[in-house]
Amino acid sequence: MSRLDRDLSSPPPIPEEGIAAVEGVLRSGWLHRYGETMGDASEVSLLEADFAALLGSRYVVAVNSCGSAMFLALLCTGVKPGGRVLMNAFTLAPVPGAVAHAGAEHVLVDVTPDLVIDLDDLAQKAEASGARHLLLSHMRGHIADMGRLMALCERLGLTVIEDCAHTMGASWAGRPTGTFGRVGCFSLQAYKHVNGGEGGLLATDDPDVAARAILHSGSYMLYGQHRARPEEAVFARWRDVTPNFSLRMSNLVAAAARPQLPLLAGRARIWNDRYGRLATALAAIPGLRLPHRPQEEEFVQSSIQFAVSGLDDAHFAAFLERSRARGVFLKWFGAKRATGYTSVSAQWGFLSDPHTPPVTAGVLERLCDMRIPLTLTEAECGIIAGIIAEELAA
Questions:
Q1: What are phi and psi of 99, to 5 degrees?
Q2: How confident is the prediction for the chain on average, in pLDDT?
Q3: Closest by alpha carbon to 67, among 93, 106, 45?
Q4: How many helices (H) and strands (E) does the chain have?
């Protein structure tokens, strides 16, 4: 009986240029991004400028996590304590965590079987709740129809903040994710498209949002050391009234991450090739359904999701265990208890009304999720599909 001899959780490796840059930072001792004599050539400042150029945004602010980037995005676009924020009912825990960090109330919006936000439910929940912010997750790399979504949000008067933790390098109809909303938030966590271990990037064209985020992140009065920053006059409006939350990125993280930005396009080709091979093989297995991917969606798919039909809880759990025993680790978002990184809104007891909306609960009930490591080979894609097919039939 075949077995996959590959750790599917392996993060992207740090290139030699990144290792050398980290060593240089360690030898210099300048781990902190600011210094009275440092100027604007720190690794973090260079990373911000490089990512702004790559994305096509005016300003980028580097912080210690994507969760911090989302918190700052909410705060700097006007979310107040007790305010309401719309968000996908299917996402990861740092997203509602950012809403809670801002002191706001969560309004859960259903997702479709294709794992994107339901625009009809979004319109209904926005009008019923009075919320004026949408924290939109491109969860697991699945991108909603951004033309329709932005037109709807404009009509409803919603400020859109994009959680792009799973879509760095991805686009909708040629436009990068993170540039549709007022703010885009990206992750450098180890399992993302650029591996900094931990870290976040806030991208925006709004000078006031950028200046406030820089000050909130902990720049002190050294904000002039940011390259991708607004003009001094913008900081003059905020510098004396903005609290320092100490959410900075270190030069170590930036040094590891920055050399990976030019590798994104090549990594995307590998990930999408492996995703395509897996999707084709899995779609041929009876009882499996994969989300539909529209032509306009230009994804960077470092994971794959599929739904299983025809199994009750006991048989589905047994299928997962047998697959894991053969090296294919499938996460289950519909599980009754949170496990590892996987949880759903019914398990977030910090919400005022922790529950999973029934439509989303049905979508997640038999949803499987699997990472695609960058090092996965073409042959291993076939092994994975074969194991899944055999264990479903067992």
A1: -65, -45
A2: 97
A3: 93
A4: 13, 14
Torsion angle, alpha carbons of 174, 180, 183, 185, to 10? -40
Q: For the chain, what is the largest distance between any 2 Cα atoms, rounded to a whole number of angstroms?
A: 68
State the number of CA atoms in the 13 A half-sphere of 159 facing the CB.
Answer: 20
Beta bridge partners of 186: 201
Pick from 188, 376, 350: nearest CA to 270: 376
288-289 and 297-298 beta bridge pairing: unpaired
Q: Which two tokens stand for residue 394?
A: 């067992």
CA distance 116 to 110: 9
Rounded Cα gap, residues 294 and 218, in angstroms:
41
**What is the crossing angle of helices 313-325 and 378-393, to 10°?**
140
Is 337 buried (19+), middle (13-18) or exposed (0-12) by CB count in 10 A? exposed
CATH class, range 264-393 = alpha beta
Nearest to 345 by CA among 127, 165, 106: 106
Match 């009509």 to its residue by tokens: 155
Alpha-carbon gap, residue 178 to 175, rounded angstroms: 9
pLDDT band at 1 (very low <50, low <70, confident <90, very high): confident
Question: For the chain, where are the alpha helices, taking DSSP H only?
Answer: 16-28, 43-55, 66-76, 94-101, 119-129, 146-156, 207-217, 232-238, 251-257, 264-283, 313-325, 358-364, 378-393
Predicted confidence (pLDDT) per residue in 15-54, tens digit = 999 999 999 999 999 999 999 888 899 999 999 999 999 9
Cα torsion 210, 215, 216, 217: sign: positive
Tokens of residue 367, six digits: 């949803």
pLDDT-derived band at 334, boundaries 50, 70, 90:
confident
> Which residues are bridge partners to 371 per DSSP?
303
Name every residue whose Cβ is closer than 8 Å to that of residue 322 and which is 6 or more positions away in sequence.
391, 394
pTM of the model: 0.97
Q: Report which DSSP code applies to 339.
A: B
Domain ranges (residues) in the chain: 16-262, 264-393
Q: Which CATH architecture describes the domain 16-262?
A: 3-Layer(aba) Sandwich (3.40)
